[in-house]
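re: ur question from yesterday

yeah so i grabbed the chain u mentioned. its 240 aa long if i counted rite. heres the sequnce exactly as i have it in my notes:
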Amino acid sequence: MSLLITICARGGSKGIPGKNIKKVMGRPLIDYSVKIAQAFAARYGGHVALSTDDEEIATVAMECGLESNYRRPAELGTDTAGKIDVINDIVLHEETKVGQMFKYVLDLDVTSPLRTLDDLEKAYRLINENTDALTLFSVNAAARNPYFNMVEQDESGYYRLSKKLPGSVLTRQSAPKVYDLNASFYFYRRAFFDTGKKSPITERSLVYVMDHVCFDLDHPIDFDFLTYLLEHNKLEISLI
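ran it thru and got these structure tokens back, copy pasting raw so excuse formatting
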């Protein structure tokens, strides 16, 4: 077995209480990640694991078809715990359980569910083909560009472009391409977790650019946006 798929869902969200199991179109939010994880695992011989510190989340995940006896340690259940440490802990737990090391880890973020099997398959091929890559994460083309229309305050108190190139960038089209991390999924080569790195963004990272809308559910209104898009068939994709 070369692939571990992790679904990390902490309890105690302050911004949106219970957001990981909040209903969207009659389904707990976590169900969207469980179902696509299981479909991808079935296709590629993977194993799906849940990391949570919350019994209610574990119960709902079980009702969605994902059972787990793993509970996240208390020190990894705070809102200051790093995601890499959280994933690493369940990776080690699952490797002990199955008695072998995985080759890849795919982490699916519960609060960014607008992903398809096609997205995951194309991204998996990308990291497989680039043997030097440590990580790959999903992105969308950014609406704003730090080389053209984003500013920050300098030491004098005045404002300037966030990033400056030699010469002037006079049009958005001539600015270097930049991307928004949409937090939907992250592929890690297993060796990444032995580097001590705490961020998925490394000197050997790839991106998978989604050609459809994808956004993280950070605020209550984001759930309203997602529900509207689903109810009115405004998405270009179909979710499992």
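noticed a couple things. The first strand starts at residue 3 and ends at 8. also DSSP finds five helices and ten strands in the chain.
anyway ttyl
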